[in-house]
Amino acid sequence: MSTPTETPSRTPLTTLRELPSNVWNSIFRNPLPSTDLERASTSFTNFFLHIHPVKVHKNTLRPVYTLGLGLMATFLFVILVVTGVLLMFYYVPSTTQAYDRMLDLRGTVAFGIFLRNMHRWSAHGMVAIVFFHMCRVFLTGAYKKPREFNWVLGVLLLLVTLFLSFTGYLLPWDQLAFWAITVGTSIAGYAPLVGKQIQFVLLGDTTVGQEALLRFYVLHVAVLPAVLVLLMAVHFWRIRKDGGLSRPEKAEKPAPEALPQAGVVKLKKVYGLQGFVRGPFTKVGNVPDDSVYSWPNLLMAELLVFALTISVILVVSLAFSAPLEQPVNVMHPPNPAKAPWYFLGLQELVSYSAFWGGIGIPGLMVALLFLVPYIDRTTHGVGRWFAKERLLANTIFLTLVILNIIFIVIGTFFRGPNWTFVSPF
Amino acid sequence: MTVATRSQGKQPEEHQSRRRMLTWLSSFALFASVVLAAVSDWLFFKPRVTYGPNARFAIGKPDDFPPGTRISRDVERVCIVREGNKLAAISTTCTHLGCIVGIADTGFACPCHGSHYDQDGNVTGGPAPKPLPWFQVTLAPNGEIEVDKNSQVEPGTYFTV
């Protein structure tokens, strides 16, 4: 609407013509960046981008250093939230209806089976990727000071991921689900003193039934995702507060040839956060600049990892269907009754001794994981894979990882009816 | 040398100790609230009633179980054993990790982790830590046999019909 006080050229037609660009500019304060200042502004004026620092160290972007595993885990979680919310529209956490709803996903819901496949394979993928991410962080010594607490948060994230996957496992209410949860919650019952109580509260009853299904459902769709999002937020925030991703010690030191020559660059005195990015250097003083702008370098790397992650999930979900066994029959456990694959190492241990396999050894392992950065106080070998200085630590860690994988393989492929040893060949 | 006194007529040490006292009291109150919240949460999440099958149930007349019977009732998860005129109810929930044990030639066998039990429920192999419990068997006034899974009896304790 034009008024006489405005410029004479302002007619309703110009207002209309300018509408799209005005709306666009009101949302995005920055044009597509063409200068370093604009690249910096893009990162901190956009809500969704300001999680990034303006500049990141080149080491952060080396694919062989991080393998993009943390990003993959995050993107898998995003896929899980989206597909999970969609599945919630058709799911009922009732022992009489849950299984029928699974069949409906196959038969009547558009894309139902595809969404379930995506959700299932992403869940398996997330457990594996989070585990590999932990291995990467350990093998590059990235948990060392000042990143100790972020490692602890990472271990918590691994545990929440496992618990999320475990609670989701029951929801289809098929034979696989029922017996895996029966076995899994019985393991909790072996904890000293409070074990039986915890099992009772977890199940809401003495056996797996309607109460357990409802409890697991609420944990799976509300409580645990909320906890996971909170922990993720702190995990990401601390990456920046701890000085970005870990990198080799020598990357911090100034290389003489990289020092600017006096008089060539004249820095204008500027103040505030933007001042640091106005000149060619991010740091004050004669420090070489080994960093690059997040826009577009980091963004492109993230986009690439996202494209890779979702492509793999889409292809796998099109090619393979998530298993659905017979509906729950509390009278006939499948023989052998197996937990989800990532717990089969545990189940194998449990077949030797329920307490030591289910509580003792896993509890000790988790406690050790939490304490890793507080036990290993050396500062060398950070930022490189398999650093020589870390031979002992890496050997211990890899031994435990490989043992875990061996137990999982035995439990998955070498155990038949009545948990007797069978050969898959 | 000079310690600022923020109210008249009070020694600095009094201030310090009062402040320390208040800090200590509020910390204690905070801690108590956390404990209270934890206890309340536990009470909330521990159900007062369960909706599962009754622990005490009737299984039929004694004549339904002729001598020599070993019937596994999987819904109630008990095995009814009759030898001569003696009746007993042995649990079929594996003491290892809660799977249902099946009746085998030698007694009971668990499909999940390979535990074996003899005819009386004693562990003969596998990871099971305890023998299968025996439940109390009684005769109800209407002539039906009742099993009470809430009360265990010594293994080898039979009910004579």
Task: Please describe what this structure looks like.
The complex is a heterodimer of chains A (425) and B (161). Chain A has 425 residues and is mostly helical. Chain A has helices spanning 12-27, 36-45, 63-66, 69-88, 98-107, 112-139, 148-170, 175-188, 195-203, 210-241, 275-278, 294-319, 344-350, 354-375, 391-413; strands at 55-57, 291-293. Chain A has a two-stranded antiparallel ribbon. In chain A, helix 7 (148-170) packs antiparallel against helix 14 (354-375). The longest helix of chain A is centred in the middle third of the chain and has 32 residues, at 210-241. The A-B interface holds A 179, 182-183, 185-187, 189, 197, 200-201, 204-207, 209-211, 330-337, 347, 350-355, 357-358, 417-420 and B 42, 45-47, 50-52, 74-75, 96-100, 109-114, 126-127, 129.
Shape of chain B: elongated
Major sheet details of chain A: 2 strands, antiparallel
**Biggest pleated-sheet summary of chain B:** 7 strands, antiparallel
- Gross morphology of chain A is globular
Helix and strand run of chain B? HEEEEEEEEEEE
Low-confidence stretches of chain A: 254-264, 274-285
Count the strands of chain A? 2
Distance between the termini of chain B: 95 Å
CA radius of gyration of chain B is 30 Å
| Structural classification of chain A | mainly alpha
Which sequence of strands runs across the widest sheet of chain A?
A: 1-2
- Which class of secondary structure composition applies to the elements of chain B? alpha+beta
- Helix count of chain B? 1
Spell out the helices and strands of chain A N to C: HHEHHHHHHHHHEHHHH
Total helix count of chain A? 15
What proportion of the residues of chain A form beta strands (DSSP E)?
under 5%
Most extensive chain-chain interface: A-B, 38 and 23 residues
Q: Estimate the strand proportion of chain B.
A: 25-35%
